[in-house]
Hints:
By secondary structure, the chain is an alpha/beta fold.
Amino acid sequence: MELEDIVAVRQIFPVLIEDELFLYPFMITPIFINDSKNSSALDKALKDDNMIFVAPSKYENGRSFDEIYDCGVIGSIMRKVPLPDGRIKILFQGHSKARITKRISNKPLEARIEPIIEEELEPKKKKALLDVVKEKVKILSNISHYFSPDLLRTIEEGIDASRICDLILNTIRIKKQDAYEFFILSNLEIKLIKLIDLLVEEIETNRLQKDIKNKAHLRIDKANKEYFLKEQLRQIQRELGSDTQKEDEVKEYYKKLELKKPFMHEDAYKEIKKQIEKFDRIHQDNSEASMIQTYIETALDVPFEKISKKKLSIKEVIKQLEHDHYALEKPKRRIEEYFAVRELLEKRKINDKDGAKVILCFYGPPGVGKTSLANSVAKALKRELIRIALGGLEDVNEIRGHRRTYIGAMPGRITQGLIEAGQINPVIVLDEIDKLNRSFRGDPSAVLLEILDPEQNSKFRDYYLNFNLDLSKAIFIATANDISNIPSPLRDRMEFIELSSYTPNEKFQITKNYLIPDELKKHGLKAGEFSVSKDGIELLISDYTRESGVRTLRRKIAELCRKTAKQILLEETKKININAKNLHTFLDKKVYEIQKRERENKIGQVNGLAWTAVGGDVLKVEAIKIKGKGELMLTGSLGDVMKESAKIAFSVIKVLIDEGKLKFPKKALLDSKTNIYEQYNLHIHVPDGATPKDGPSAGITMATAMASIFSEKKVRSDVAMTGELDLNGRVLPIGGLKEKLIAAYKAEMTTALIPTKNYERDLKDIPQEIRDNMKIIAVRKFEEVLKYSLM
């Protein structure tokens, strides 16, 4: 059915409103729909026969009959596409001009439509007017950018006066009201005459604009003339040999590049050479010149050719580790194994891959020697050490580098580290890898996946350099405090080596043999001018520091050295001897790390063992019973896990009382008809109340405190314990055993109760000093705990 027939039959069509422009017949135009009225009109059209009337709006977002023009284009919907942002895109093909004769509906907009039929014009007159129109269009095209060559050809060869008018009006984009006045004209002669007037006006306007631009260009040309004169002067100076600075720089860059060429990838060579050529062509006053020069100098500073060629020697690694570190036996042995494999592969000329490229990650509390172990490795291998602090890093470009399109772009930290080290194969320490942050700037851990993967890091691309770097020759060592914070894909790339707390004896040896000699050198003191007695060091360790490592201990030694230096200069003292008696005169106050055990055995007070970020600690658990109804009250800033442990412990105690395995004095009963645990409320407290506490290892401690309260038996004050309970009374394994037993030993406990599985699995990791001086007992069931703890 033809369009005229459809309009004659239907007459009523949905109305779609277009905000931006007037549509003309025979145009195929995309229209975006994002409002309910247009959506309703579209749905109506699609439901019927895809025919719709499109009218332009008078105002922005006008959606009523009063806010739109009463004319438009009737046409068909060729395609409908829903967009991700919720809008709908349709492809509309216009067929004929039409106008609204009657409003039918507001939801959706519907109206009675009738076509706009233009009056026929005498052929001679039409041809004359069209010739004038085409002449004006040709003139306008010569002084403006309106008409493309194809459009100009279409107008030149066209004979349909109405369509030529529509093409011109759509191209020069006149105001909506002016477009409306042309649109509704049915008299073709008047329309062509008005169009000629409009074209004449456009020609005059464009000529005026062109004159203004020409005058502006004259002023610019004057500035350019000065520039070219200056450039000619520089060229003359160059010819005379008086200004060859840039030329010399370019020659130097090419010379450096050719020296590095045998050691770099082809893509790196091409990229740097391209930038040197660009720098040579560009004028030095150009703002881009300094950026290109900075890039060239940075890229040529990358030490492609500088490789530490010292052969690996496991003997030297062992010697350096033993020289720099006391204790840490397990980490040192693993490092030695790592380099033994690499040396063997090197000697037998086997390609260094897989097991030899394992990424080691040292983890443990602060100050236990994670970074210094990496430093010792670098010394033994005679390689430079690069330390990249990752704590709080959230911008992925800090590692990968910024693209040079950004202002202030710079290479990533890895590239900067290689440049500072002056080696392509240094030891790179990724410090605090567990403290990476993720933000809208990217996820740094994703870049580290590439850096730490032996299969990928031979082609690591720095965005600033824009070429690949070979990181496979570098040795990566990571450090962390808490490996649970490291993303699991990143954890999969590394082998973890734990560095746990030092025992008091280990701290004593480290202080005597390492810290004091180091601080004497740093403070300019001689060995005969400063000394600390054995009891002075022990008091310093036990009462003045609170840590797993020795960082605070080193600071205290440094403080003593500073005060010694001051006394030597002001009081002309020849030697300062520090011991347990006069230590308090040099240091401000004591910070008790772990309180010594109480000598008095008490009912309801048990020594538990806890793990903290700075090592182990002895955690007292207190309990009392109050007349009540069998309720359990918990205080001491306990976390959810410890609260659940207390509830489980309470249930285990109830079962033991019911089964008669936990005896209690008859006088404790307030009512013979109910169970004892229903006659009292229990209050469990873990001092101090301001410190948050949580973790799955206090089950047997809280259960022992409850058992002591109900049985009214005292708990041995020299016994400490750690372990979790299940509802059947089994003692479950825990973590951090070494730190906990060190804390018990420092607190002068004589006996420690630990889960059987931990005894079988972890006892070998406990320092011999602790095993020799403290009785460690494995317990499988809670009844065994009561046997060793209650009196």
